[in-house]
Amino acid sequence: MAKVKSHKAAGSIDMTAMCDVAFLLLTFFILTATAKAPEPLPVDTPSSTVQTKLPETGLVMITVGKSEGKEQVFFGMKDRAIRSGALDYMAQKYKLTFTEEEKAQFALVDEFGVPVEGLKQLLAMKASDRVKKGVQSGIPCDSINNQLQDWIQGARKANIDEGADKELQFAIKGDAKELYPQIKRVMDILQDQKINSFNLVTGLRGKDY
User: Fold this and answer.
1) Strands 70-77 and 111-112: what pairing?
2) 61 CB contacts (<8 Å, ≥6 apart)?
């Protein structure tokens, strides 16, 4: 007796729920992602296998590099409250007055590199114009006009005034092609203020580099 073959119907899968989940995840990652802010002084850091991460708060970053053949030093503070306090310190020291709007703008600036006398002009610019090449000339840090030292003092004072339970941490980010004397000058400024522990920022490389 011949067997009767049964015909199997092709199954179907409802993908609606899976598509909903995929779009929800995509929306979540887009909304929570943080865009990297453009750097006013991009530097090519030396390579290293060290994977220690810098803290997200309580950090001051000093960037040393060159733009158009001229050595420049930039200063950045992670915490907005420290930025505001350091600005008040510099305003008092250099007998300058900043409006509330200018203070609010400065609190949003991650990193800058102009003499304090030119800070008002910088804050009056659009954020996109501030990071253009050649706009910022660097913070003076020579023996005659050492404003970098004053910014360091202002940041440390602001940290104390905020009631922080630990000292500010400092990091130096220098270009791999930068000559050692320029980096050492920044180190000397830190050590003159009894800051003997600081980080050197490097880029990650493979073990077989």
Assistant:
1) antiparallel
2) 75, 76, 77, 78, 111, 170, 171, 173, 201
Q: Which amino acid is at 57?
A: T
Give the ranges where the chain is alpha helix by DSSP (H): 16-32, 80-93, 100-106, 119-123, 127-130, 147-161, 180-192
**How far apart (Å, rounded) are the C-alpha atoms in residues 156 and 50?**
27
- With tokens 């306090």, the residue in question is 85
Residue with tokens 């929800």: 24
**Which pair of tokens denotes residue 153?**
């003092």
> Parallel, antiparallel, or unpaired: how do β-strands 70-77 and 59-67 relate?
antiparallel
pLDDT value of residue 1: 54
Strand, coil or helix: what is 187?
A: helix
- Six-digit token pair at 9? 């119907």
Give 204's pLDDT tier (boundaries 50, 70, 90).
very low
* Beta-strand pair 199-200/47-48: unpaired
Residue 62's SS3 state is strand
pLDDT for position 112: 94
SS3 111: strand
Contact (Cβ atoms closer than 8 angstroms) between residue 157 and residue 90: no
